[in-house]
TrEMBL record:
<keyword id="KW-0067">ATP-binding</keyword>
<keyword id="KW-1003">Cell membrane</keyword>
<keyword id="KW-0677">Repeat</keyword>
<comment type="similarity">
    <text>Belongs to the ABC transporter superfamily.</text>
</comment>
<keyword id="KW-0997">Cell inner membrane</keyword>
<keyword id="KW-0472">Membrane</keyword>
<keyword id="KW-0813">Transport</keyword>
<feature type="domain" description="ABC transporter">
    <location>
        <begin position="2"/>
        <end position="237"/>
    </location>
</feature>
<dbReference type="InterPro" id="IPR003439">
    <property type="entry name" value="ABC_transporter-like_ATP-bd"/>
</dbReference>
<keyword id="KW-0129">CBS domain</keyword>
<protein>
    <recommendedName>
        <fullName>Quaternary amine transport ATP-binding protein</fullName>
        <ecNumber>7.6.2.9</ecNumber>
    </recommendedName>
</protein>
<dbReference type="InterPro" id="IPR003593">
    <property type="entry name" value="AAA+_ATPase"/>
</dbReference>
<dbReference type="Pfam" id="PF00005">
    <property type="entry name" value="ABC_tran"/>
</dbReference>
<dbReference type="InterPro" id="IPR017871">
    <property type="entry name" value="ABC_transporter-like_CS"/>
</dbReference>
<comment type="subunit">
    <text>The complex is probably composed of two ATP-binding proteins, two transmembrane proteins and a solute-binding protein.</text>
</comment>
<dbReference type="GO" id="GO:0005524">
    <property type="term" value="F:ATP binding"/>
</dbReference>
<dbReference type="InterPro" id="IPR027417">
    <property type="entry name" value="P-loop_NTPase"/>
</dbReference>
Amino acid sequence: MISFENVSKKYDDGTYAVNNFSLHIKEGELLVLIGPSGSGKTTTLKMINRLIPLTDGYIKIKDKMISDYDIHELRWDIGYVLQQIALFPHMTIEENIAVVPEMKKWDQTEINQRIDELLHMVGLEPETYRKRLPNELSGGQQQRIGVARALAANPPIILMDEPFSALDPLSREKLQDDLIELQKNIKKTIVFVTHDMSEALKLGDRICLMRNGGIVQTGTPEELIQQPANDFVREFVGIDQSQEKIMDIREVVEPANPGEMEHLPVISSQVSINEILALLSEQEQLAVVDRDEKIGTIDRQGIIRILSGRMEALK
Ligand SMILES: Nc1ncnc2c1ncn2[C@@H]1O[C@H](COP(=O)(O)OP(=O)(O)OP(=O)(O)O)[C@@H](O)[C@H]1O
């Protein structure tokens, strides 16, 4: 869906913000770009919608060079959500959401229906929120509107630059959970920038870890945890020392009836990360046994929730 081929961005002062970056982002994938401050995440993101021009290499969207797209079409086909969402302060929520559909000259009935649909999608009641101004919403609600606005004209790609970083931990977690649920339905190609590994593990289908403008490792959360390419990855992922430690997984077990669990491999409710990751690499779901009784199931998302929770605790 999005291909970077040997992409570099060099500033006039000689700084390489991004250096020889090659990556293929698949359709419907949520790819997380993560790395320390200054590693080139935002620059990489902004090159996709041509907010920053590249110095070398090329980027293709669906086999077409981004330089060959009409700039307006390119921007309309790419939703963009930022940390400081910058809703238009003098415009109501419905007007804010309608910006791109209006530019694309959708008819008014269609726009109206779409606004209702989007507000439902992001968990805000249209009757309550349509006519409000942005400053009459909480930070978390404003971010939800930001997501709705980015999705308005149904673009295939969404770029998200630390969208939840300014929120308190509870709202942040709620928005992350809701994004996971939303993505199950909309299946957009999402590029998500964060510097928070617990967020990356939780949200990413794959994670691309950057340093000094280049890629250190790209892989699924499990791959980064189980097969870190080097010490930098090991340190950045930060849970390596405790992988052998036994932990309690009961809090993330999903209830299930005995029939559903009959043919699943079983695992104890007290296990090590290594043990559980090894089993989950072969099986989608496992049945959890506690005191000789099957108490429910666990899947990849459950494990990622435990790992990201542990990392929150380590901060
Ligand atoms: N206009 C500019 N001129 C010169 N250097 C720049 C410019 N903009 C960014 N840079 C440099 O490019 C590098 C990458 O910046 P970028 O914003 O992409 O990093 P980042 O990984 O998103 O960082 P953060 O997590 O702090 O947002 C940094 O070293 C930065 O100082």
